[in-house]
Each structure stands twice: as structure tokens, then as C-alpha cells.
Design brief:
Blueprint: E1 10-21, E2 26-37, E3 42-46, H1 53-61, E4 72-73, E5 76-77, H2 83-86, E6 90-93, H3 107-115, H4 129-140, H5 159-170, E7 177-181, H6 189-205, E8 209-213, H7 217-222, E9 226-231, E10 234-239, H8 241-244, H9 249-255
Parallel strand pairs: 3-8, 3-9, 6-7, 7-8
Antiparallel strand pairs: 1-2, 1-4, 4-5, 9-10
Helix pairs in contact: 5-6
Length: about 260
């Protein structure tokens, strides 16, 4: 695998707040956050439901625009850029394995679309033998035998298979930031283990700057070099690699007691 440029720097600056309005009240889903994430840093975010984790990820992705504050990626202010314009930097794997892929298209077609995600689209999808071999080689690393089924529709695969392939698809283009939005929540334990192992290998191989949201505290402990605890829209704890290495797994459970 060819490694990405490790000089990439992701800075999320002053995400002041995003407000959800209801009939009776207003809730600041994310409020008063100042966060810097360095190149190739793997950040794991945990916290109870409603703590603002997904909203924060949505703001990084561009699917939610903050009411105030700013977001910078690689020195560029992208606060008002929608998600499709941020795709030159960002790839995202969702909780639902059905998201992020085209069910009716073949595995090969899905990989081709991923490979031209940020490039100008021509009249031809441009699949040739060299590309087929490239896709087969990547898929073979999963050990699932899917490299021999690349003409099979994506929708016929299991959730675990789709998530694993979605991860591989995320590095088919110029992705530098990988957002993992509870990618194993809908999977059985064996598939979840495969997906997390695959993600970890790709993150290291491509020097990806990564944010993982998870409720699985075992994964939060075993993966990443920085861990953030969110609560009520704020960052409650932020442990860098040195402090995280000193934390025991039971300490994470104590955060929620």
C-alpha cells in the first residue's frame, strides 16, 4: 500500500454551538468545543447518548453546519462547505452497513465509483483489467473470498462484508480524514472484530487522520492514540497518547458509573 502524506493537519477550531430547537426548549447539542487533531492522529470519542458525539462528527463531515465558530481542515476554513465539497479530504463509514454503498451495483462498480469520488466525472466508468486486478488484490486482504465475486451486487452481502468493503473503498481516492460513526454497532461480534482490525490496518498504512465514535469501551481502549469523553455537548476528558496508555480498561467503565 502507498502511504498518504503524513504532513496533513486537521484543525477543528471553536465549534461553539449547534442548537436544536423544540416546542418547549432549545438544546445545544455541541457547545464551547475547541479541538485540534494532528496529522495521522487516531481519536476515539465516547460518551452517553445525547452527549454530542454524532453532531460533532456531522459538523466535521459537513452534513451539519455550526451556528457559530469555525472548522479548518489543512489550513482551509471549511465551515460553510457542505459534505460533498469536503469529500476531497473526508471519507465516512456509517453505523448502518447499508449506507455508503449502492446496493444494486456490483462490488466492482462500487469500488470504481469510490475511486473517482473526488475527480471530474466522464462519460465512461473506466473499468479495465488493471483496475479489476487492483480491486481483487485489495479485497483479498480481507480473507473473505470476495475477490472472486466482484460482479456480485453489493446488496447481496452481509452487513459485516459491506462494512469491510466500505473501509477499503474509503482509501480508493485521496481521503486523508476517516470518520467512523459507530461502524460495528449493527454487526455480530466476529464481523465487528474484522471491521475494526481492517480499519486499524488501513489507518496505519495510509497515515489517516481518524475520528471513531463508539459505545464499545473495549474498542475505545484497544484502538486509537487519543480518547475523548463527551457529555452534554462538551469535552469532559481528553487523553493524549501518553495519558491514554496509562489508563486501564476498567477506568473507562468508571467514567460512566
Amino acid at each position: 500500500m502507498t502511504k498518504k502524506n503524513a504532513a496533513f493537519y486537521l484543525a477543528l477550531l471553536m465549534l461553539l454551538f449547534i442548537t436544536y430547537a423544540g416546542k418547549a426548549n432549545q438544546v445545544n447539542a455541541v457547545n464551547g468545543i475547541n479541538l485540534h487533531i494532528k496529522a495521522a492522529e487516531f481519536v476515539v470519542i465516547v460518551g452517553p447518548n445525547g452527549s454530542g458525539k454524532t453532531t460533532l462528527l456531522d459538523m466535521v463531515a459537513g452534513s451539519v453546519i455550526p451556528n457559530s465558530g469555525s472548522i479548518e481542515i489543512d489550513g482551509q476554513n471549511v465551515t460553510k462547505l457542505p459534505d460533498y465539497k469536503r469529500s476531497k479530504w473526508i471519507a465516512r463509514v456509517f453505523q448502518n452497513p447499508m449506507s455508503g454503498t449502492a446496493s444494486d451495483l456490483s462490488i466492482l462498480d462500487n469500488f470504481r465509483l469510490a475511486s473517482i469520488r473526488t475527480k471530474p466525472k466522464g462519460l465512461s466508468i473506466g473499468i479495465n483489467d488493471a483496475f479489476k486486478n487492483q480491486v481483487k488484490e485489495k479485497i483479498s486482504t480481507l480473507g473473505m473470498g470476495l475477490e472472486n465475486k466482484i460482479d456480485q451486487p453489493m446488496g447481496t452481502l452481509s452487513g459485516g462484508q459491506r462494512q469491510a468493503l466500505t473501509l477499503l473503498m474509503s482509501v480508493m481516492d485521496s481521503c486523508k480524514v476517516l470518520l467512523l460513526d459507530e461502524p460495528t454497532a449493527a454487526l455480530d461480534p466476529r464481523s465487528a472484530q474484522l471491521v475494526m482490525r481492517t480499519a486499524d490496518e488501513l489507518i496505519k498504512a495510509y497515515n489517516l487522520t481518524t475520528i471513531l465514535i463508539t459505545h464499545n469501551l473495549k474498542d475505545a481502549y484497544n484502538y486509537g492514540n487519543r480518547i475523548i469523553l463527551m457529555g452534554e455537548g462538551h469535552i469532559v476528558k481528553d487523553l493524549d497518547s501518553g495519558h491514554k496508555s496509562a489508563v486501564k480498561q476498567n477506568d473507562l467503565f468508571d467514567w460512566f458509573s
